Structures are given as structure tokens and as C-alpha cells.
Amino acid sequence: MSSKKGILYGRTSWSEETEDGEVYEKDKEGSFNYNKYEGEIENGKPHGNGTWTMSDGSTYVGQFVNGLREGIGTFTWSKDGTWSGKSYEGLWKDNRQHGKGKITFEREEGEINEGQIWEGEYKDGKLWNVTLYLKDGSIYGEYKDGEVVDDESWSEGKNYDEKELQKRVDEIEKREKEYKHYRER
Question: Of 72, 73, 103, 136, which is the most exposed, with the fewest CB atoms less than 10 Å away?
């Protein structure tokens, strides 16, 4: 079956109409009454490139396979939620962050996590091999194989000698090239 472009409503099951035939709109609190998908559709599900706007205003723009987020995509949390100003850009598998990716916090000065970047490898929606960077670029923390690397120097940012710093820069540049390769696909 070939794909077509269109609009669907739903979350795990999809329909070309809202459940009760209501108009897709925001309620008094500013939330949408339904989740809405716009993009390529195959077999009645998101399949290909599209945009999914959730009822709370969060959005996912990227690739879908059989109704699930799969491939390259960007998820931006709702401006009204706890994670306001947070976005994830990277690879997805089975509706979860999986593979190379980056979480960015674009928040007002002084807000929690302001300016932080969490970059690396995600697995099944979890931080797997990820480095946490502060706004100034210093390393705040690391995850290796899904576990926090216990390092007391995180609280102050880490100061490396020149050799270790160059090693880290080389690793980051390598990851950026790999990530850029995935984004260009």
C-alpha cells in the first residue's frame, strides 16, 4: 500500500476524525482536546515524515514507522509543563529515544537546567552513554552503560589537563560527525 498525506487524531490508535466529531481546538486552559498528526500515512497510521502535536502542546517532528516514532526526530516538551524549554533531537526506536541524540534546555536565566545539554547515546528512552554539559560548556556529569559515573568533581565542573581535554575534544568532534551523518540521512 502506498502512503498518502493527511491528518489523523489519536495516540496509540489513530482515526481520521476525532472520537466524538468535535473540532480540534484548544480548551480554556490552553490544551488541545486531542492529539493530532499531520503527515504521511500508511494503513491508517503515521508512516513516513510528519508532525504530532499532543494535547498538552508538546510536539514531535520527524519520522514514523507503523504509528510509532522511529528514525530521526525532534520532540519538544510543552511550554506549559514541568519540562518547558526542553527538547530532544536525535534517533528514535519503538517510540523511545534510542541512539545518538541530544537534550537541550532553553530556559530563562536562573531556571533549573538552564542552558544545559545532555548529549550522547540513549537506549530505550534512557540516558545510556551521555555527557551532561553546563551552560558554559563544562562537564557536569556522565552516564556510562545507563549508570551515573560517580565523580565528585561534577559539582564544580571538571578541570582537565591539556592532554585529557584534547582527548575529550576529539571524542566530542567524533560524536558530532557521527550525529551529523545520521541527521543527513
Answer: 136
- Which amino acid is it at 143? Y
CB neighbour list of residue 115: distance below 8 Å, 6 or more residues apart: 105, 106, 107, 134, 135, 136
Exposed, middle or buried, 40 (CB in 10 Å: 0-12/13-18/19+)?
A: middle
What is the per-residue pLDDT across 85-106, written as a single tens digit (0 to 9) for each? Answer: 899 999 999 999 999 999 998 8
Q: How many CA atoms does the CB half-sphere of 13 hold within 13 Å?
A: 3
83 in Cβ contact with 107 (< 8 Å)? no
Give the single-character DSSP code of 118: E
Closest CA to 168 of 116, 111, 120, 114: 120
Q: Which three cell numbers stand for residue 157?
A: 565542573
170 forms beta bridges with: none
Does pTM surpass 0.85?
Answer: no
Distances (CA, A) of 22 to 13, 14, 15, 126: 17, 15, 13, 36
What sign does the dihedral 89-92-98-100 (CA atoms) show? negative
